[in-house]
Amino acid sequence: MATHLRLERQVLSYHLDDIERITRKMFQQSDSGTLASTLDDIGKLLAQHGISFEGRAVPVSLVPTVVPAAEVQAIERAGAVVRQVLNRLLVRFVDEHRRRTFDGPLHRFFTPYYRWWDVIAAEQRTLEHIQLMRYDAVRDDHGRWSFMETNTCCPGGTIHCARIRDAWRKTGLGRHLCHDELVSEFAIDSDSGFVRFLAQLATQLDAAEPNIAILNYRGTYTNELESLRRCHAQLRDKAVIAAGELLLGDIRDVVCQDGRAYLGGKPIALIYNKLDPLQIDPGAAEVAGWVAASASPGTEFLNSLGAMYLAETKRVLALLSDPEWSHQVDLTEDEQRVIKEVIPFTRLVEDFIRGGTPALSLPARERQAFVLKADALTRGAGVVIGDQVGSETWLEALEHTRTNHGVAQLKCHLPSRTGFRTDLAGTVTRVAEFYGVDVFYFAAQFAGMVSRSHTSQVFNVGNGGRESPVLIVGSAHA
Questions:
Q1: Strand order across the 212-216 sheet
Q2: pLDDT of residue 52
Q3: Is the pTM above the cut of 0.85?
Q4: Interatomic CA distance for residues 443 and 321, integer angstroms
């Protein structure tokens, strides 16, 4: 099962030198004193910005994730192709619903989300469905890339990762490792990159009052929000962006009247929903203003409700990679090739065991080759790795994943490296850690990469992982 993007052999042979060169430089500077002082310097720099992760210090890996610049063009294009297919999928779902074809193939595929079908189809937009997205990806030790998940609801890492990277680069260790290196910079590497993107869209929607609202629901997923608000205010005060405000609020506080949304009495051009969409009952009176705002002509959501509820799911990768479903979006030959290369073999668990015995299904027989994923959970919740549990636990997880509408995905090779941890006394120890590379897009534009690492194979900062600075190094040409 070929599931990875492999670059041309001459490219791989070798821009791996870029990684090895910086790794050697890293370990030349890996005495305990240097590492402890580097962590202390990073902590002080982040504290100056008031940066925390939901009330605690942001965990940072001292080891940078190095990506050869020569590989970026191929990854950038692959991500753009998959995003294009997802946008087309969402357009077709809405068209299918507006034709009242509720038994159509895309509605059958997304049956678990039937409660939100009507509000998804009622939304009015001039923007494409997906304006902000992040692929959770890995680059294995042989230079093969895999996109393990799409994030088209409200992916994190839009400002704090840039500030962590900048803090790391300002340390003595960071300056040493980057000395004489050609390091590429993208929008996600700037702490104002995402805010500038929001401001650009808001001005496009309403040049006279380009106000932006970042909306939460009952205090879930508040990381980065205050940092984004302060950044917007600073850019506005310096006349770097158009006049307007960035407001923080709860979706329950939205009022919709005269065809647009208001928050705190102020008209809103653009809403960025930073929330868990499955917490929301679309028929509840408390969110009626927010639902009405989605269907109003005067306000737009950054990512559509379709992006939040459908393209965000794990099952969307099964739709892309399973020929039984992917024909519904009329993939071109080029799209088929790209999807085969970067999307791991992913199938709905229900399709594996429908009409059969779960114990005889492919993921049950080949437990060590698969990962189970609940369909719409985040931060590593509902993920079970086959080679880390016994067969009895796996069968139970298989049934649990089926009832949670989840998928079985062919396990990708996760790269590992030596990292460092410090205790409260400042003692530094070496640890083995896995790491991934998250690939960002602002609208159709590749926006750069961020990274997370963890001693666990489920690497997520919300479950104990660490942010890792990304260095895209070397020439962009093979």
A1: 246-250, 212-216, 270-273, 300-301
A2: 65
A3: yes
A4: 23
